[in-house]
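Reproducibility note. Readers wishing to regenerate the assembly model reported in the main text can use the exact inputs given here. Chain order matters: entities are listed in the order in which they were concatenated for prediction.
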Amino acid sequence: MDTYQVDDGWEALGDRTRRAIIECLAERPRAVGELAAQLPVSRPAVSQHLKVLKDAGLVIEHAAGTRRIYRLNPAGVGALRDQLDTFWNRALTAYKGVVEQPVEERT
Amino acid sequence: MDTYQVDDGWEALGDRTRRAIIECLAERPRAVGELAAQLPVSRPAVSQHLKVLKDAGLVIEHAAGTRRIYRLNPAGVGALRDQLDTFWNRALTAYKGVVEQPVEERT
DNA sequence: ACGAACGGTAAGCTACTCCTTACCATCGGC
DNA sequence: GCCGATGGTAAGGAGTAGCTTACCGTTCGT
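Running the prediction on these inputs yields the following structure tokens for the assembly.
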């Protein structure tokens, strides 16, 4: 159940519309049409994005009558979180070694 | 010191080559040529990717002789981590709610 | 001061991503 | 059995992202 390609997860989140979908689903599970109603793209576009997100393991869908309810998949999101956590910790470690000079954060 | 567009961060990580760069930099800071030597793309390509990563606030560079050393920027990576954390927590919460209550409630 | 190392930028091409419209399949209510 | 609602899929096109080669500026060593 972890077997998702984490890479796919990152690529899935690389798209702005898909991130918007993720944010919507973070609030609560929703049907496809409901998502499309709140996004600036057509319903088929949402369908396509949902397919990508599902393949990446970031969302789960289940049928409910004629509708399909999508919601976030904690496992998938958690996998990305863990990987980012690793980068973050290593960055902090490396940062410590160089702290002696006042880094100009931006530009 | 933050004020990075988090969206830019996600889009930056959406590319496979850039993620490879991030992974390299997570190990230790490196120069441009050094990165290019370990990647399947040319040095100019690496330069372009580094520019994107820098604009997104994910890496910091400083000159060292004729070389430019790049390293991860904990602040930028941390910002993404926080946002992903939020999604993750909400996903867990929503998951709980669904398990306890039938989903028919809200559409 | 000259040459070599290092790296950023310009220009151009290929390929892919994302969107739209049109169509079809499925489910539920009457 | 029909009809409306819902949503997945196909086909096609516009825009852009990423790579390469070529070129130029800067810095260090001698």
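We highlight two features of this model. The domain at 9-106 of chain A is CATH 1.10.10.10 (Arc Repressor Mutant, subunit A). DSSP finds five helices and three strands in chain A.
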